[in-house]
Structures are given as C-alpha cells and as structure tokens.
UniProtKB/TrEMBL annotation:
Coiled-coil segments on the chain, per record: none
Domain Serine/threonine-protein phosphatase 2A regulatory subunit B'' subunit alpha/beta/delta EF-hand stretches: 62-120
Identification of the protein by name: Serine/threonine-protein phosphatase 2A regulatory subunit B'' subunit alpha/beta/delta EF-hand domain-containing protein
GO cellular component terms, semicolon-separated: protein phosphatase type 2A complex
C-alpha cells in the first residue's frame, strides 16, 4: 500500500484563498487623502425614485390640455383612458387611478383634484 505524503514543511503556512489581500482601492485612497466628506447620492427612496422635474411638468401640461377640452373640466370613466395615456402609465392602471382620485357627485374625476393628486 503506497501512501502519498504532502510536501509540507513546518515553516509553510496554509494560504487562505477566500480572503483577498489588503489592497486599497482608488476610492479608499481618495477618501484617505481627502479632507472633505465624499458626496454619496441618495440611493434609497421609500416611495420609489421620483421622476425628473421636467418630466413631471411636461405631464402636468399635457393633462391640463386634456382637461381643458373636457366639459366642466371633468373626466368620466369612459374618457379616462386618455388621461392614463397622458400620464404614461399602463392601461391596466386606469381603474385604480380612477378610484384613487376624488370623484364629483356625478361620478366623474375633477381635473383640479386629479392634477393635485398627480403632483403628489
């Protein structure tokens, strides 16, 4: 029976290949040499990342134009698909958006209330 003997000496240490060597990255060196605190952009948005301001304003202008064309500045459930298209959201959001906004006594969406809702 032949045994294989490993060639280890008492002085050699086993190499742990799971731990990377202590090498400073460029960011670490930059932070170490810098006296100012680094700018770290916000990365957590509890309510979702807000759209750019220009996109929101463009959408608001489009919505105002659509509501201007509607009688009494109100949109019925049948015409609400146009509003959903202007908001650039999927069509299956039509009913949830319609139900989330405050409805007038005749069951239509008031344009001013919807615009206030959409700004939020």
């Amino acid at each position: 029976m032949t045994r294989f003997v490993a060639n280890h000496t008492a002085k050699s240490k086993p190499v742990n290949r799971l731990i990377p060597p202590n090498i400073h990255t460029t960011l670490q060196r930059h932070l170490k040499n810098s006296t100012k605190a680094p700018y770290i952009p916000q990365f957590h948005f509890p309510n979702g990342k807000p759209p750019p301001t220009i996109t929101t304003e463009t959408t608001m202008q489009r919505l105002e134009q659509v509501f201007d064309k509607l009688p009494n500045y109100e949109c019925t459930r049948d015409n609400f698909q146009v509003i959903v298209q202007m908001c650039q959201v999927p069509q299956y959001w039509r009913l949830p958006l319609f139900m989330c906004t405050q409805l007038t006594p005749n069951g239509a969406v008031d344009g001013d209330k919807f615009l206030h809702f959409w700004r939020q």
